[in-house]
Amino acid sequence: MSQERKTIYLCLAHMSSEGIEQKYVQEAFDTNWVVPMGPNVNAFEQNLADFANHNADGTSLDRKVVCLSAGTAAVHLALIACGVQAGDEVCVQSFTFCASSHPITYLGAKPVFIDSERDTWNMDPELLEKAIIDRKAKTGKYPKAIIPVALYGMPYQVDKIMAIADKYGIPVIEDAAEGMGSRFSGQVLGTFGKFGVLSFNGNKMITTSGGGALICRNAEDANTIMWYATQARDAYPYYEHTSIGYNYRMSNVCAGIGRGQMTVLDAHIAHHKHVQELYRTLLKDVKGITLHEQPADERYDSNFWLCAATLDPSVRIQGQENAYKEVIKTAVGGAAGVIKAVDSATTDCQPNENVEALRVFMLSKKVECRPVWKPMHKQPVYADAVSYTNGVSEALFKVGFCLPAGPYVSDDDVRYIVDCIKEAIVG
Ligand SMILES: *Cc1c(COP(=O)(O)O)cnc(C)c1O
């Protein structure tokens, strides 16, 4: 049986069954709009704004959306629009993917890493306020921006983070790259802050093959972002530049994929939630495995981009005695791109041996099971960065893992995955 199975990946791009994406891509070719602007880009931006502006209670907002070449580019331009410059500090959630914090360093600014609270696994509001006060005392300046992250889709404590940001007058850049369609009090994540980051990478809620967007508060901010995204050109009959710009606009071909994907976004969100519900039911009685659930507070509405869980250190997993014995040859999960070879199988901060053994066991069953993201304040590249920690993300990194979710994961797959987990546990 296991030989015939295809590998079940964490989250894969999934096109609409009617091939609507290809129709819009074809349109781009037919009308010769094979450039980083055009009708598909404009329409996709409108679709995204309509989605973001629609609250669950029927009221609506008036946000603008600018499409960009990547979510990482969106973070970068949001920081610029918040006035972040070399030497400035930016408070960013430590428990995240590197794209939340790397653009801070692109600008010569410094990330100040904030640890997580246990309920949402996201930015701890108390630590955030402590950091803001402490940075002001130590540097004489407040941080220039705050970046909370909806890790695995889970909303952060929006009300508390926004209240602190408002109290100190610091703009918030919401990293909703993994949280597209997650809501807090019925309002879409990314619409609370000055800017909201979306990603359409191949593994996110919807894809444009690669791409991203910024949700902006108003037309003026959207205009600024669009200007920076198109090499910051001033209005002369020749190229005249008063600022450094970027080539970050989305291709009209990619936006065609995005327009088609918007027709399945609601179905994707519903499917991720359905998969989570099935894991919940099937894993309920499996000792030592605890699902990462949203707080018992009806304001939280996660898209459950990935199913995250923790493994109790007391649980023994098949093959555990061999965990970390072999140097990894490729990135975990077989990520695309070039992975720098390493000469050691271990680092001073890594998942417990039973978590690593579970990953290897699941891979042998053709199931991708990945450790949760390693906190940025524990990354060698950020060894010199300032951080405000409480041990939560580091502890979660030792016991946490992610399971496949998304439109490609069927009910049968979830049952198979849970059976594999049960088989992996030896005591
Ligand atoms: C994917 C991701 C991004 C960046 O998106 P790209 O489109 O891949 O550049 C940013 N932040 C987080 C938390 C992400 O997971």
Secondary structure topology:
Blueprint: H1 20-30, H2 39-53, E1 64-68, H3 71-81, E2 89-93, H4 102-106, E3 110-114, H5 125-139, E4 145-147, H6 158-168, E5 173-175, E6 183-184, E7 187-188, E8 195-199, E9 212-216, H7 219-229, H8 252-262, H9 265-283, E10 289-291, E11 300-301, E12 307-311, H10 353-364, E13 370-371, E14 386-388, H11 392-399, E15 400-403, H12 411-424
Parallel strand pairs: 2-3, 2-4, 3-14, 5-8
Antiparallel strand pairs: 1-9, 6-7, 6-11, 8-9, 10-12, 12-15, 13-15
The protein binds pyridoxal-5'-phosphate.
Descriptive keywords:
427 residues, alpha/beta, globular, binds pyridoxal-5'-phosphate, 4-stranded parallel beta sheet, 4-stranded mixed beta sheet
The percentage of residues in β strands lies in 5-15%
Report the bound ligands by name, code or SMILES.
pyridoxal-5'-phosphate
Helix content: 25-40%
Structural class: alpha/beta
Number of DSSP-assigned strands: 15
Outline type: globular
| Major sheet summary line | 4 strands, mixed
Q: How large is the radius of gyration?
A: 22 Å
Q: So how many helices?
A: 12
Question: In which order are the strands of the major sheet placed?
Answer: 1-9-8-5
Task: Tell me the span between the first and last alpha carbons.
Answer: 25 Å
Low-pLDDT residue spans: none
Any overview of this molecule?
- There is one protein chain.
- The strands form four sheets. This protein has a four-stranded mixed sheet with strand order 1-9-8-5, sandwiched between helices. A four-stranded parallel sheet has the order 4-2-3-14. A four-stranded antiparallel sheet has the order 10-12-15-13.
- The protein has helices at 20-30, 39-53, 71-81, 102-106, 125-139, 158-168, 219-229, 252-262, 265-283, 353-364, 392-399, 411-424, and strands spanning 64-68, 89-93, 110-114, 145-147, 173-175, 183-184, 187-188, 195-199, 212-216, 289-291, 300-301, 307-311, 370-371, 386-388, 400-403.
- With 427 residues, it is of the alpha/beta class.
- Helices cover 33% and strands 13% of the residues.
- The longest helix has 19 residues, at 265-283.
- Bound molecules: pyridoxal-5'-phosphate.
